[in-house]
């Protein structure tokens, strides 16, 4: 479970997070939905220990991301908004490199690398270097890197940005598989359809705060709307910076 408690973060005079509080349970997909600039990436970066909050805590399975960053990070797989692949390495080498960074070695490492290659259906790519890969192929390698240490938490920043329909479908299927295995999945998006299609719970963010949270049905009930899209617009007060 990921718990964010009263997180505040400013960049000079920009108040990116303002006492942000929510939690993402295990075995569920939680969507962080908000317009551009709402603070989603800032929040995810604090959870992953890349940024420090001025106030508040981010707990991963009870481990404080700020106080025990390495232990916290071992519990998390991160799928970044840009797939930073090392084009000189083969796919197998890249995934093994990430496994090493997370402390895997020897037979366990070999075993996990082989498993994720199989899981993501990239056996045919495994010995190729990633230069020239399509977006969908890059996405799969990035996901394999995120999952190789078998994390109990998966964080994705705008996961389907730039992906075509087929790749988006594959990504969604993998996220559903991970959910069925009990993984806590938290992803950010400013695309309503994506959130509506995938999420068990939605945390609607605006101006660094939670504007509303709940299941899609609860959000519709809260706003008296039957369509989730209308509910989001009502909660945020505008559709600016949100994509259908
Ligand atoms: N390193 C930084 N330096 C200065 N300001 C920053 C920095 N990072 C984020 N901000 C500001 O903090 C606010 C929140 O940004 P953040 O990237 O977290 O929003 P977001 O919800 O992820 O937006 P988007 O959907 O556009 O990615 C914005 O006003 C942004 O300009």
Automatic annotation (TrEMBL):
Q: Which InterPro entries does the annotation name?
A: AAA+_ATPase (IPR003593), ABC_transporter-like_ATP-bd (IPR003439), ABC_transporter-like_CS (IPR017871), ABC_transporter_ATP-binding (IPR050763), P-loop_NTPase (IPR027417)
The entry lists its GO molecular-function terms as: ATP binding; ATP hydrolysis activity
Q: What is the lineage of its organism?
A: Bacteria, Pseudomonadati, Pseudomonadota, Gammaproteobacteria, Alteromonadales
Q: Supply the name of the protein.
A: Sodium transport system ATP-binding protein
Provide this UniProt record's keywords sorted from A to Z. ATP-binding, Nodulation, Nucleotide-binding, Transport
Organism of origin: Idiomarina aquatica
Is Transport included in the keywords of this UniProt record? yes
In terms of PROSITE patterns, this protein maps to: ABC_TRANSPORTER_1, ABC_TRANSPORTER_2
- What are the residue boundaries of the ABC transporter domain, all occurrences included? 2-232
One Pfam family of this chain: ABC_tran
The entry sums up its family as follows: Belongs to the ABC transporter superfamily.
């Amino acid at each position: 479970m990921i718990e964010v408690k009263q997180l505040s973060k400013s960049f000079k005079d920009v108040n990116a997070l303002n006492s942000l509080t929510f939690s993402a349970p295990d075995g569920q997909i939680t969507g962080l939905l908000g317009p551009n600039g709402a603070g989603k990436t800032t929040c995810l970066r604090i959870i992953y220990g890349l940024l420090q909050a001025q106030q508040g805590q981010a707990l991963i399975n009870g481990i404080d991301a700020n106080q025990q960053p390495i232990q916290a990070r071992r519990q998390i797989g991160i799928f970044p908004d840009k797939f930073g692949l090392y084009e000189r390495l083969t796919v197998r080498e890249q995934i093994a490199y990430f496994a090493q960074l997370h402390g895997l070695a020897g037979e366990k490492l070999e075993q996990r690398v082989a498993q994720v290659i199989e899981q993501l259906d990239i056996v045919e790519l495994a010995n190729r270097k990633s230069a020239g890969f399509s977006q969908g192929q890059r996405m799969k390698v990035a996901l394999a890197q995120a999952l190789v240490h078998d994390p109990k938490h998966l964080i994705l920043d705008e996961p389907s940005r730039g992906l075509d329909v087929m790749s988006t479908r594959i990504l969604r299927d993998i996220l559903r598989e991970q959910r069925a295995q009990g993984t806590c999945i938290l992803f950010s998006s400013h695309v309503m359809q994506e959130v509506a299609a995938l999420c068990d719970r939605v945390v609607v963010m605006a101006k660094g705060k939670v504007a509303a949270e709940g299941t899609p049905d609860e959000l519709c009930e809260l706003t008296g709307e039957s369509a989730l899209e209308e509910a989001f617009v009502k909660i945020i007060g505008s559709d600016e910076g949100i994509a259908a």
